[in-house]
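User: Predict the structure for this protein chain, please.
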Amino acid sequence: MAGALAGPLHLRGLDLGSCQSDRAILRALDAAEVAYAVEAKGIVVHPATPRAFYFDATECPDLFPPLVALAAYAKGETILVGANRLLHKESNRAQTLMQEFAKMGVAILHDQDRLIVKGTGSVQGAAVAACGDHRIAMALAVAALAANGSTEISGADAIKKSYPAFFADLSSLGASVSLPNFN
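Assistant: Here is the predicted structure, written as structure tokens:
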């Protein structure tokens, strides 16, 4: 999603033949009409203004946070199905996404098994919280890449659970990142 919002981004290591659900990200990019190219060395995601989209993430619930970050920039209602699988993660991700993205000016409704993201095409920088959830911290950071104003993420060190180099990698891609010591 970072490539779509502030790319281009070269993604390496995504096995297109894998049975892991991570490869579903390409279906989401297709649904949002974000251009990407599959190359010998990986996938290049090009910057784009995403379109509101429908995506069933029931089998890939870990994609919800980055999908919300992408949908925040799409004008209109994006519908993400499978939200019931978000209730018992590191946080109640449905509630946390609604709460923290609201601080960034993005309305999200939880309707039965769906999250409905009411994208306006822009996101406001804000003071937000990761709520102890590594995927929320990363989604907020990705949303902040193209936000109007700066964003401060309290509890951002939650990224250590799955991707300790996340902020260093964002910085190496040109993002303006100021980090406390996560040691």
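The two ends are 27 Å apart (CA to CA).
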